[in-house]
Write a structure and sequence with these properties.
FdhE_C; 6-stranded mixed beta sheet; 2 domains; 9 helices; FdhE-like fold; cytoplasm; alpha+beta; about 280 residues
Length: about 280
């Protein structure tokens, strides 16, 4: 099975570089919405449905190839710094075949069409680990998702949304935030498109459990700004940053916090909780 093994610090640096590239690519994209499309978006939101679709926000396979090849280059650069193991060399070779080989054009076409079942088959044929393949797919699509989220923000305020899924792409939240306003107003954050929206405080966003006695909260006293919000019913958890205790001077970046708080994931697993 093709995997990537690298020191945690190097992996975090890699994720940061990929995100910086994604943000730059997103700024280059223009996603204008016609009046009819805007009506379609608002109609979906009024029915509590997320708005993103391949029809409304189509992808360009040519641009996806540019993104894929540069992400692969960043990955190669990270692994070259500390020397590449045999396992990593095999993984890089498989990824090169997928993203730059003879069948790459078909891969990017399938990616643009959203045929994820076919993409998984291609990854499996090259023995690429599924979580790694899923990360690469999300990483290549993210510039479009960031750009389309911005287009959505121009016509709809996420403050009007109070559902457990992202109003833009429909993903589950990856992080939470308790703000300094209104005694810790709760917000959910989607790392897929980096959209944030308000949500009820004492309720599990994954199974709608409202029994406060089965919604445990875990934190370390020395780091009260980080907490794990668990659910005894569905056994899921959400990492959350409490801004009321946030010690850093720079502005809060929930995507960065998600990457940097791997220790919270380990604690959650020890408690028998999972993200999915």
């Amino acid at each position: 099975m093709a995997l990537i093994e690298a020191p945690p610090v190097d992996m975090i640096l890699f994720f940061q570089k990929v995100r910086k590239a994604q943000q730059a690519w997103a700024q280059e994209l223009s996603i204008p919405l016609s009046d009819e499309q805007k009506k379609q978006v608002l109609s979906l939101l009024s029915k509590k449905e997320h708005v993103w679709s391949h029809e409304l926000f189509p992808f360009d396979p040519t641009k996806l190839r540019i993104y894929g090849e540069e992400i692969l280059e960043l990955l190669q650069s990270m692994l070259d710094r500390d020397g590449t193991s045999t396992e990593n060399q095999e993984t890089l070779f498989s990824l090169g075949q997928l993203l730059q080989g003879d069948g790459a054009d078909e891969f990017y076409r399938l990616l643009a069409e959203g045929d994820f079942e076919a993409l998984e088959k291609k990854g499996s044929a090259l023995s690429i680990d599924q979580p790694l393949l899923h990360y690469l797919i999300r990483a290549m699509l993210k510039p479009y998702l960031l750009a389309s989220a911005k287009a959505l923000g121009d016509i709809f305020s996420t403050q009007e949304w109070n559902e457990p899924i992202c109003p833009h792409c429909g993903s589950e939240p990856s992080m939470g935030r308790l703000s300094t306003e209104e005694h810790g107003k709760r917000y959910l954050f989607c790392s897929t498109c980096e959209t944030e929206w308000p949500f009820r405080r004492v309720v599990c966003p994954f199974c709608a459990n409202e029994d406060q006695y089965t919604l445990p909260i875990y934190y370390v006293e020395e780091e009260r700004h980080y907490r794990i919000e668990g659910c005894d019913q569905c056994k899921r958890y959400l990492k959350t940053v409490d801004e009321r205790h946030y010690p850093k001077k720079e502005s809060l970046d929930l995507y960065e916090e998600d990457v940097a708080t791997v220790q919270l994931d380990l604690v959650a697993r020890e408690k028998g909780l999972t993200q999915k």
